[in-house]
Amino acid sequence: MDFMSYARHVVAHLRKDLRIEWRAKDSINGMLFFSLLVVVVFSLAFDPTSYPTVARQISGGLLWVGLLFAAMTALNQSWSRELRNHVLDAHRLAPSSASTLFLGKALANFFFVSAVEVVLAPVFAIFYNLHPLGQSWLLLLILPLGTWALVCNGTFFAALSLRTRNRELLLPLVLLPISAPALLAMTQATTAVLTGDSEPGLWLRALVGYDVIFTTLCMLLFDLVLRED
Amino acid sequence: MQTRSIPKPLIWLWLVATFVVLAVGYYQAIFVAPPEATMGDIFRIFFYHVPNASLALVPPYINLLASIGYLFWRSSNPARAMAADALAIASAEVTLVLTSIGLITGMLWARPIWGIWWTWDYRLTTYLLLWLLYVSYVLLRRMSSSGQTYTLAAVLSIFAAVDVPITFMSIRWWRTQHPGPVLTGGQVDKSMLPAIFWNIAGWGMWTVFVLCFRYALERRRQGLAATKAQEFLSEGDARGY
Known about the structure:
The structure holds 2 protein chains of 2 kinds.
Chain A: H1 3-24, H2 26-46, H3 52-83, H4 87-93, H5 98-127, H6 139-161, H7 167-195, H8 201-227
Chain B: H1 8-32, H2 46-55, H3 59-73, H4 78-114, H5 122-143, H6 146-177, H7 193-238
Helix pairs in contact in B: 1-7, 2-4, 2-7, 3-4, 3-6, 4-5, 4-7, 5-6
């Protein structure tokens, strides 16, 4: 298959997912409210405005934990909607490569989580009274790279857990151990920007490496997960 | 399904030899090796910690190779693929047992020496993540329905294998940025060597035994499941379905 038709299939899958979400807005609304709740619950536990230094040190981790759990709710939904009316079986029979379905779905999820971040990041800064001491423009690199690391593997493992008995439960159990290095890299990079204590460059490079390796792996192995009976 | 089996006397011989070597190892570790200069008798935990913790790094490779073998043979040679899968689950569970022993003995040692049960030192963290990865592997196998388990587990095994070196590197970077307590390394005294050697040999033999035992068990389970499916099918035939 040549590149153009491959790209066309990816875009077709992506447009379908975006259109469904645009009409229902289930995932985005759910994620937004969920992550807002996470922000509130954590500030009840830590009282960030009274301790600005502590807030800078921990809020990078809190932001990613909130996003991770919010993304998890959307990832499960994104595949279970394909089960209705046996859409997934139709995908299995489709003559296009399985990885186009994966890429389309992962890109759609990436857009949804990024949209949540656009809203959540300012809210976070306000509620936690954050004044980043490092180069805050670097967050424009860290957030998308970290989001892709979560969403790429998340989409893959959501499809994998779709074929098991307790799928909602299994996704975090499998995704979290695999994502541990990515989580470490994104929280460290974010904390480095917020506190200004260290350089986030190493962690940014680690995130790029993680993204490249696992995107390749997911695309290579997705056919096995989708078509195997 | 046919399985080649090892003669029973040989298995018993291996088991008895394992116990003998372990007994010698115990004698060497507890009675012969002198107390360590600074740590005293607590050091003797090392004779159990080091063999189990280092042996735990071997079965993950078997797990990966067996998983690749399963994916490779699954349509061309299903019988061999099933054998590979049995080896994969056996090695994953043995990894879990060994890492658990390594973690627990390490913590028992850390409490009196470091004064804390646990520290986020890079070696400990990597080890914990290795343990977590194999717990999730075993959980996936538990939670998926029988027909799909093998492929999904093999896929996860490949992911885990790719993940381990990345985890190792990133945690190393993390801990070099924030220095923490480091294992006080140093030359091991010659008088300790026999105890270390006997225990590594003994626990290695034990590991091989448990691995083979678990493999044989899984092969029997597969055999039973296949027979049951066959009976079910022939019953259907008899009723004219």
